[in-house]
Amino acid sequence: MPIISRLFALVLAMAPTSVFAQQPTIDFGPAGNVSDTPTGTARTEYVLVVDQTTLEKVHIVTYADGPNGRRDVYVRYSTDGGAAWSSAVNVSNTAGQTNVVGEFGNSRRPALVADGDELVLVWNDRYCPGGSQGSYSPGGDPIGFACIWAARSTDAGRSWSAPEQLTDGSRDAINQFPAASPDGVALAWQEDPAGVPGEGTGGESGASGNPGTNIFYTALSKADFSAATAFPAPVTVSDNVSTASGEPRATRPNLQLVGPTALLAYEETKPGGGGKDVLWHDFIFLSPPADSAGSVVNQMPAENARRVRIVAQPVADAGANGAAAMVLWRQGSGSHGAPADFMMRRATGGYGIGQFDDAVNLSGATLDEATGANPEDSIRGHRGILDGSFAAVVFIYTPSEADRALQEATYNVRTRRSFDGGQSWSAARNVSGITDFGRMAFAPRIVATSPTIPSGDPLDVRNPDVYFLAWDTRENLADQHLSERFDAFAAITVDRGRNFSAPVPIADSEAEEWETGLQAWPSGEIVCAIWKQRDPGESSEAWFRCGERGQVPALAVPVLAPWSVLIMVLTLMLVVRRFGPFPAVN
∠514-517-521 over CA atoms, to 5°? Predict the structure, then answer.
């Protein structure tokens, strides 16, 4: 019946058209190898700072590099978006030293934080001079305890102080976590009196501890930091005093400074066993509590809570009903590796435990869903941002951890957003869209645009509607740490999470890519990424590239006005009257 085709074509030709809003994307430029050494590069970190005198943007990358078990911490910087880099500065310089058991120095896990153009770099090292270093033998051979070191820069990363030893190695230190604000700089870490379990067998996460493992803390005012004043002696914040009677173990601290207020959280084994609790401290950052029990954040005493993260902002920025802080953690009935849900509590009007709302389940079908409602679904890699009354989170989610281990399900990147400071939340959105159960998303990240720079350049004016997500992908095995790594991706939103771009590969490479970090310019027009990359048969290296916000081609589609719809209905009526009803389709 060609008449029908002609009539429909006529209606569509007469109908107005609408152009879908152009969808954003990221157009990445050339990539460069930052570490570029014949030996393997370990942990990398990246910050973007602004020189307070020249308003120049300075990209600063730190990484541990050298033969396995004999690494140093290096720093490089770029002022032209990564086109050229400074010479690598060896900040730790201990790989040629030997410790109490004859091991070489080994600098690990550099962590970097900045406020303005002042930065602190902290790491742990097997070289602990001073005569108090302990040791243990988890794998048969003796291993020296690690101690905490720090270095500082007051010129936007162009030069660095001599390293400062903060602990003496009498206990095994790990999981160092720095924080900074305009008021000063603070550091937290854990120390184990008997040596971190798993050190000699590849564990090395610090998730487990021996009785008496505690959280330590030290801080400097901004004036003292700038004046090169030494950090004061660490304070033992947690109260695990016994090393033999089964007292709790405090591990994996997370620290934020909001002005003069320190927010410190960590996980601690429950008295008598049965999993962990998340503990909370808030205090004036230069007056830390000593031997304090802290406050329990999680509200289900029988469940296991761990992997705590803090997202915070000044109370004045939160608005009438917004969150001054959000505490994020995993919680479930199982132990290590078991399925867990994404739990969140927000503090309003201040940071005390009494100012926290009840916990909500951000991975549940509803915010009040019990963690046991779906005992098989699970999350990992939870992160968040908080910007006035706006909040957003990212995590990876699988509907069934058991099915995932059999490659009958997988982890995808999900995100949610809130416009009332975390009181209510949008439905979860799948951003990665992985349908191949042989692959999974891993290690998601979320980053907002940086504050406005008073340069007069439109690129330096903050756009709060833009933020970025990043993640890597790997083989979907029951033990993800044995998985082959694949590509890393990023996605951009320009409307505060209403829409996201399609995933954009961060690297133009067939190599393995992982451990991605992002930093965005204030306008969100430029984003830069650091990641680890390993070509087949080669050592891992730190790579870097920047990208500009772009647009994918717009699509024009017809929009049927009411009169167009009426014509179509009349046409169908005529067709039915002339030719009879359409035949049934089997």
Answer: 145
